[in-house]
């Protein structure tokens, strides 16, 4: 009989053909709208075969029985960089557990400027507000780093949460970590220098991808941090000169994490500790 670890790391799921319900289903045309001067577009989430390995830390924390109950509803998908999983004030029908993809909650101001509040990767999930009946989001849920994720209907997770037990405890603990991230980011944005914030943000992305090369442009980073592209270019130049990173067009490579951590603000360790605490609690 297969043990719990083997069940999670070797489960097989049939290929699915459904497309993300938030997108238009009229042929394969994309739907887009202009919001505060920024063009937002829904693209199709592409179903893909499962690669046999489970890396999402929330799912690996579930006891075997709870995971087995959830397993038939999990659908592996591929997410594209820049894709909006949920639009502004759009209902949430599906929840995503990122595997290699990294996702953010992007807020758009009245003047068209943007800033991100949370960064989510294999340490969590997106769509939590649907589980908690918190209403439609006042932000965009955007893919920063394209990659894989596991998708499940929001009602499935909501039912599991309402049953109590391990799933409820896990999500409540994760919710506390997300609130801690929101609070820490607010402090960070108001008190710390751009170069420090840039280092913290790059470390958070690196933690969630596990890849030394990050497909990011200066403009994309500026959009996430709510600053001008020129400021990001200046910061990246400083980090390159120190030997912490290298970069070419549209790609940043982490060369020395220790130098990045030394240059980052204290928020990086606080944010990391909040996630680790949420995942280490007994279920």
Structure description:
This protein is 41% helix and 22% strand. The chain has 283 residues and is of the alpha+beta class. Strand 7 (102-108) and strand 8 (114-120) form a beta hairpin. The model is unreliable at 9-41 (pLDDT under 50). The chain is globular. Helix 5 (154-162) packs across helix 6, helix 6 (165-191) packs antiparallel against helix 11 and helix 8 crosses helix 9. The protein contains eleven helices and 13 strands. The longest helix is centred in the middle third of the chain and has 27 residues, at 165-191. It has two domains: 4-163, Jelly Rolls (Sandwich); 193-264, Arc Repressor Mutant, subunit A (Orthogonal Bundle). The two termini are 24 Å apart. It has helices spanning 4-9, 57-61, 64-70, 128-131, 154-162, 165-191, 194-209, 218-225, 229-242, 257-263, 267-280, and strands at residues 31-35, 38-42, 46-47, 75-79, 84-86, 94-98, 102-108, 114-120, 140-145, 147-153, 213-214, 245-248, 251-254. The strands form four sheets. Strands 3-4-10-6 form a four-stranded antiparallel sheet. A four-stranded antiparallel sheet has the order 5-9-7-8.
Task: Provide key terms for this protein.
alpha+beta, Arc Repressor Mutant, subunit A, 283 residues, 11 helices, 13 strands, Jelly Rolls, 41% helix, 2 domains, 4-stranded antiparallel β-sheet
As residue ranges, the low-confidence spans are: 9-41
> Which architecture of the largest domain per CATH?
Sandwich
Write down the CATH topology of the largest domain: Jelly Rolls
Individual helix count: 11
When the domains are counted, the total is: 2
Q: Report the average pLDDT across residues.
A: 83
CATH top level of the largest domain is Mainly Beta
β-strand percent reads: 15-25%
Radius of gyration: 19 Å
Largest sheet: 4 strands, antiparallel
Distance between the termini: 24 Å
State the shape. globular
**Beta-strand segment tally:** 13
Q: Give helix % range.
A: 40-55%
Q: Could you state the CATH homologous superfamily of the largest domain?
A: Jelly Rolls
Helix and strand pattern: HEEEHHEEEEEHEEHHHEHHEEHH
The order of strands across the largest sheet is 3-4-10-6
Structural class: alpha+beta
């Amino acid at each position: 009989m297969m043990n719990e670890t083997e069940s999670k790391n070797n489960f097989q799921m049939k290929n699915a053909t459904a497309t993300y319900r938030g997108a238009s289903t009229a042929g394969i045309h994309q739907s887009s709208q202009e919001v505060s001067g920024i063009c937002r577009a829904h693209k199709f989430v592409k179903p893909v075969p499962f690669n046999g390995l489970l890396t999402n830390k929330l799912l690996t924390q579930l006891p075997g029985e709870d995971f087995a109950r959830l397993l038939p509803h999990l659908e592996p998908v591929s997410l594209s960089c820049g894709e909006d999983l949920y639009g502004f004030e759009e209902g949430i029908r599906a929840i995503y557990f990122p595997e290699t993809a990294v996702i953010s909650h992007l807020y758009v101001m009245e003047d068209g400027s943007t800033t991100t509040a949370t960064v989510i990767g294999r340490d969590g999930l997106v769509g939590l507000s649907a589980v908690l009946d918190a209403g439609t989001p006042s932000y965009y849920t955007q893919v920063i780093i394209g990659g894989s994720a596991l998708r499940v209907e929001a009602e499935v997770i909501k039912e599991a949460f309402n049953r109590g037990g391990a799933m409820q405890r896990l999500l409540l603990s994760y919710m506390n970590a997300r609130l801690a991230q929101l609070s820490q980011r607010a402090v960070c944005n108001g008190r710390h220098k751009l170069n420090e914030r840039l280092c913290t943000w790059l470390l958070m992305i690196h933690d969630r991808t596990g890849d030394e090369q990050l497909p990011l442009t200066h403009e994309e980073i500026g959009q996430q941090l709510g600053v001008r592209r020129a400021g990001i270019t200046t910061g990246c130049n400083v980090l390159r000169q120190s030997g912490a990173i290298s970069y070419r067009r549209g790609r940043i490579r982490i060369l020395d994490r220790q130098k990045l951590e030394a240059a980052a603000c204290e928020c990086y360790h606080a944010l990391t500790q909040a996630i680790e605490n949420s995942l280490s609690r007994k279920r």
